[in-house]
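Dissemination and training. As part of the outreach component of the grant, students in the summer workshop were shown how a complex can be specified as a set of sequence lines and then modelled as a single object. The example used during the hands-on session is reproduced here so that future cohorts can follow it. Participants entered these lines:
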Amino acid sequence: MSEDKKKVRIAFFDFACCEGCQLQLTYLNEAFLGVLEHCEIVNFREVISDKSDDYDIAFIEGSITRECDVERLKKIRKNATYIIAYGSCATIGGINGLRRRYTDEEAKEIVYPGREFPLEAGWPRPVHEVVKVDFFLHGCPVNNDEVVLALKSILLGKGYTPPTHAVCVECKLKENVCLFEKGQVCMGPVTRAGCDALCPSWGNTCYGCRGILDNPAEQGQTDLLEKYGYTVDDIKEKFDLYNTCKMEADKNE
Amino acid sequence: MSDKLAKKDLNINVEHVTRVEGHGDIEINIKEGKLEKCQLNIVEAPRFFEAMVKGRSMFEVQHITSRICGICSTGHCMASVKAVEDAIGYEVSEQTKLFRKLLLHYETLDSHLLHVCFLVAPDALGVSSVLPLIKTHKDVVLRVLRMKKQYNDLCSIMAGRHTHPISLVPRGWTKLPTKKELEEMKSILLSQVDDLTQTVELYKTLQLPEFERETEYVALIHPDEYAFYEGDIASTDLDNDIKPRAYKEIMHEYNVAHSTSKHSKNKRDSYFVGALARININYDKLNDQAKAVAEAVGFKAPCYNSFHNSTAQLIEIAHCTYDSIRIIDHFLENGVDYDDVVTSWPTTDEWAGFKTSKGTGAGAVEVPRGMLVHEYTIDGKGIVTNANCVIPTNQNLSNVDLDMKKLIPENLDKTKEEITLLSEMLVRAYDPCISCSCHLVNVKFV
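and obtained this result:
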């Protein structure tokens, strides 16, 4: 019983998202059971029936869209010692930001042409635009290795800071041929690393899911575009895909 | 029924049904022994995916729609690339198709196993979740975790990762498995034969409720195979099958007066999509190993007990396992054409000569929860100008409702707790994916 008390109580909450990041936990296998030895999951709606309001760490998955979600999140903030924004929808707004290209009315018109119905469309926001976030775990979906590393570090009281270098660094270390050389446009030069350059290593490009670096090498990116004959407009749309919320926030600063 | 029961009053509200994907509430009101209301309220936050993809390139649309749902990401990708290819009239290679079928099997295996063992079995074993089973049925939990980990590994080998596949793009694959990887996949699948037998044995011990309600069953049908990736649309109520592009002939989306959700029906008030529909329509196309499982658990098609959707899933687990081995053997024997890779986006040179004519196309795929259709209109520059996604869970919502309206009155002699559990079990049997169903709208039927 006393041992149980020492366990850190963890809760998972999902907002507007695909719940794919929660799903990653079921792939942790024995590592998942290992984590369970040190903590107790008290809220994980997708997998367990029991619910509790008593927890130390709250993982927030998804973007915050509606007023009722804001209220729910504020309650969670009050209950939790630490809040972890978990996955791109939570850390940077992710692809939910694409919805910001349209007003509520336009979005409704696209999905329900010509029909009036009561519906709060909501405005997609990353978690930190609503409440204070203690730690960020980026990615669409999150990277399990990083999740375990961060969780261990947080449980040890050391906190967690995501990588501050670009995906390009990881891609070079894997000795991938640069995608610009292959006639592709890639977000790798300005995107936060931590994924081990997974998408470029699988023949695809980087889409920027881990967010734009706090201090991206802007000149480097500009030089690169120039070298391969692209304009800023050619890549503007690639920035929108995951980073609409961040770009709007920067604009408003 | 006794007088006491006849006058029974009961209000049940289950907020955020657990062990389903997404947020849904069950509401049941019984007054004087009469069922006044029973419904599944979907309370998931709307995300407006059709608006998200409108105006985006056809070469990234599968990347976006994959994010409709983490569990069903492969299925959404698959429907997406098929719709795009159909819209621009692009024919993929036979090799591309066969590898897509393989990846689709992996997703079905993973999703079905999670549903049957983690989401359904706890009810049948009388516990609130898989967690208490770690103490009482540790071998079962470890087996399921092991199998899930292996399915994840299989997806990773094929597509870079399971959730949001990387190498599955319009026109084909950006990376193909090596011979060594093919052998690795085969050995993983062969190693699961024993786990599969154990899973069937466990399933035999589960008690599913007695219930029957015949309805219309809709699934893809293919002349040569148990259809998942391709085929025409078949219905138990129709004599002739229809082409995927004509999906609206069967999938009539409609609005309920008291609801903001899109429901779906054909001629009757509801229809069923999912493993049970597939098996009711395509039972004879199952492989021998799957038929053996069906016999072992006493399953006979056609089956009209919705709870047995889980049984149909178990049978499909066997089918997909052995069909995956068949596909891998084909490539081990005939080799892989490694020149058949594409880039995710056209290269600078390809863009120079790139043009499409404006067109609309549809992709219909059997995903774990039933038939999924994506339909896009694409303009001359490859930009999506219109999109529609018809989601399995949405198609089943009316059928869940009608099942509940028959099931609850048949069980009024039970306690409130028993009725609550029964209704939750019914909802879970459909394996609803509410993230998917609310990709576009806040469903609420009150």
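The CA atoms of residues 186 and 205 of chain A lie 5 Å apart. Students were then asked to discuss how this feature might be tested experimentally.
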